[in-house]
Amino acid sequence: ALEVSTSLAWFALVTVTSTWLLALAYRNTKFQLKHRVAVRREDAVAREMSRKLADEKKMSRKEKDE
């Protein structure tokens, strides 16, 4: 059997390493999720703006481009 201090050192090392790996994986996944949400929102906003602009036919072309 290992002594308590040796076991504690291994436990701390494995805990720190696994925490770091989880943080790294979360960071990568978070970026992908944010990108996916941004793309979906962009499509929805473009659709909504097109609908609004179609309703407001009195607007000038310059106002629609803005």
TrEMBL record:
GO terms for biological process: SRP-dependent cotranslational protein targeting to membrane. It comes from the Eukaryota. It is found in: Endoplasmic reticulum membrane. Keywords: Endoplasmic reticulum, Membrane, Transmembrane, Transmembrane helix. Pfam families: TRAP-gamma. It is a multi-pass membrane protein. GO terms for cellular component: endoplasmic reticulum membrane. The keyword Transmembrane applies. The chain crosses the membrane at residues 6-26. TRAP proteins are part of a complex whose function is to bind calcium to the ER membrane and thereby regulate the retention of ER resident proteins. Belongs to the TRAP-gamma family. This is Translocon-associated protein subunit gamma. It comes from Xynias lithosina. The lineage of its organism: Eukaryota, Metazoa, Ecdysozoa, Arthropoda, Hexapoda.
